[in-house]
Amino acid sequence: MDFTNDTPIYIQIMDKIKSDIITGKLKKGDKLMSTRELAVALKVNPNTVQRVFKELESEEICFTKRGMGTFVTEDDQTLALLKTQIAKEKIAQFVEGMKSLNMGFEEIINKLKAYEEGKL
Amino acid sequence: MNYLINCINLQKNYMSKKALIDINLKFQEGKIYGLLGPNGSGKTTLMKIFADLHKQTSGELVICDEKPSHKTRAYVAYMPTENFIYGWMKVKESLGFYADMYADFDKEKAIELLKFMEIDMNQKVSSLSTGQRARLKITLTISRKAKIYMLDEPLNGLDPISRSKIKECIIDQFDAEGVMIISTHLVNEIEQILDEVVFLDHGEVILAGETEKMRLEKGKSLEEIYKEVYGHA
């Protein structure tokens, strides 16, 4: 995994796990790698991974069973919410980019349609 | 917070040459530190003082709440840059040699790590490649049950596979109750592993702090910061 310098590494790893959940690479109730395993796999500091799990837990996306490991939540509502939240972030990014090209909302919609129809 | 190393106004002179100037640093339990700087910046001198192989000229040093002595040596596992293992030994004899030298040496662990490192126990040390020898060195060092681990230039001059194996070993074996100090100038290889970094230049600390904070504040990788800091060199 390559990391950028504008976002903390733990957030980049969190985003990766979230996207793996949304795309179905990780399914609800799946067990995640242990802190050490994930740290070794990503070649990052174990403290960073520990933070990832702590934050994911506080967002209720994951939960820890004592002595058994960390698992993806089984709560459908949380997962649906996660998807909505990420979609919102992506849309915000996209709209901001288009607005910086001086495009209005109507124009953005038209461009989107044209893109979908392969006319852009 | 528990600091395993604390140095106050540490100074080291070699004759009239100042090797370390007014070093004030604390190393906290559970963290991995990078000691960065070009050759001659004082990294090795500082590590050797921590390992009680050199004495400071002035200033104070506390290792695990004690003054450096033969006793604190037992808390410190130091891997120097030199080849410290006799070439005529077989790998398995070098384990015995280390077990004799250090009461805290865990031979079982070393045997297990050597498997991961893909080193044959029956090979002669002198017949190992540079990369294999480096992997043996780190195995011996990390298989001690110390509180402070110091690795002097663990990645220098090694092939990508050896570097990768050594990095995995560092991450996997890191003890949350210990401190790990890694000196290097190969910053990009290792920046994701470091909790904190200390930049040394001509014996002085010119920059120190949390890696992540530094990266975010400057919007640059540690390697870019390194180039900026030592750009004059």
Automatic annotation (TrEMBL), chain A:
Task: Give the domain of life.
Answer: Bacteria
Residue spans crossing the bilayer = none
Q: Which UniProt keywords apply?
A: DNA-binding, Transcription, Transcription regulation
Q: Does the keyword Transcription regulation apply?
A: yes
Q: HTH gntR-type domain location, by residue?
A: 7-75
PANTHER family, A to Z: GNTR-FAMILY TRANSCRIPTIONAL REGULATOR, HTH-TYPE TRANSCRIPTIONAL REPRESSOR YTRA
UniProt-recorded name of the protein: GntR family transcriptional regulator
Automatic annotation (TrEMBL), chain B:
Q: Identify a single GO molecular function assigned to this protein.
A: ATP binding
PROSITE patterns, alphabetically? ABC_TRANSPORTER_2 (PS50893)
Supply the InterPro entries for this chain.
AAA+_ATPase, ABC_transporter-like_ATP-bd, P-loop_NTPase
Q: Does the keyword Plastid apply?
A: no
Look up keyword Transmembrane and say if it applies.
no
The protein's name in its UniProt record: ABC transporter ATP-binding protein
Q: What PANTHER family does the record tag this protein with?
A: ABC TRANSPORTER, ATP-BINDING PROTEIN, SKFA PEPTIDE EXPORT ATP-BINDING PROTEIN SKFE
Q: Where is the ABC transporter domain?
A: 5-227
Coiled coil feature spans? none
Q: Which SUPFAM superfamilies match?
A: P-loop containing nucleoside triphosphate hydrolases
Q: Which UniProt keywords apply?
A: ATP-binding, Nucleotide-binding
